[in-house]
Amino acid sequence: MTFSETIYRRIRRAADILRAGGLVAFPTETVYGLGADADEESAVRKIFAAKGRPADHPVIVHLRRACDIADWAINIPPAAWQLAESFWPGPLTLILKRSRRAKDVVTGGLDTVGLRVPRHPVAQDLLAHFGGAIAAPSANRFGRVSPTTAQHVRQEFGESLDLILDGGICQVGLESTIVDMSGVAPAILRPGYVTAEQIHSTLGIPLAAATDASPRCAGQLASHYAPQARVEIVAVHDMESRYAALTAAGLRVAVIDSSVSGSIPTASQIPIARDVEVYAQQLYSTLRAVDEAAFEVALVTLPPEAGLGTAIADRLRRAAGPRDDSI
Ligand code: TXA
Ligand code: MG
Q1: 114 and 248 co-located in one domain
Q2: Is this model's pTM higher than 0.90 or not?
Q3: Which ligand 1 atom lies nearest to the CA of residue 113?
Q4: Is residue 268 in a domain?
Q5: How far apart are CA 28 and CA 215, in angstroms?
Q6: Within a domain: residue 213?
Q7: Which residues form the domain of 15?
Q8: Among residues 117, 126, 178, 232, which one has the fewest Cβ atoms lying within 10 Å of its Cβ?
Q9: Is 60 a pocket residue for ligand 1 (Cβ < 6 Å)?
């Protein structure tokens, strides 16, 4: 990046790169995305190659305005428009029946498509200058922790991307809430900043439990969002004894908690905010910090599972899930 180049010039250059079929990492209010022209199959394929992601995984299509969903989806139920009106632009993705515009490379061959209108000003400006739709998963290698700063994206991909737009620290810090609106009742496939309680009170109808067991769908992979260190979920009252047992076995152990004390040395404690909004925003950088300090195990307690705490607990469970490389 040249010092004199303003973010606005970079956004224009990013739009040119997208038009030429290249990849651009860009900030959203949730996490950084790795974007390509959603209408160009060869461009979207480059995302999968860069991430090392299985080619049958669907990617979210980012749109500038809510009304654009009518180009990408059919049979849009009134409840989907209601959610769009209440939460867009913002950290919500809607799964809808796809139109012909949504190609197999974007939908992973499913008959649905994930659509989202992000609210980050840099994402909004990029969509406006580009003029099209941007297919973008989170800008991390497959299965790893999502990036919440431009520096994280550089750590993931080095200099191999055409351009990384720096929009500062992501405000939300966790991936968008995904709501499946393609079935008989709305179902949350991935919890996020927009909570089940908010969706329920907006729609006034019961939500269905997510039942789709396909590993290609959001949040169905046991291990996801994982740092290098092994993550273990521990009850508060077991923390000190678990810490003692693992360190006695010679492991370098970190404790991620909002209130640890007692026998655990300060150097092993990684404080996390008690406020769930701050906790969510800092979670992924905290998991990265665990790796940077070369801890082998991170012990963590779950926050109360209501509201945003549900999304934090979901990501922690996935970070603690069984790893492919442990089989
Ligand atoms: O906040 C976010 O959603 C970020 C930013 C960049 O927008 N994006 C993101 O994308 O988290 P990704 O690809 O890392 O996660 C998207 C999830 C995947 O688990 C994918 O399987 C699911 O959305 N997904 C996409 N389209 C789908 C569909 N048609 N049906 C079910 N799940 C879908
Ligand atoms: Mg992801």
Answers
A1: no
A2: yes
A3: 29
A4: yes
A5: 25
A6: no
A7: 5-203
A8: 232
A9: yes
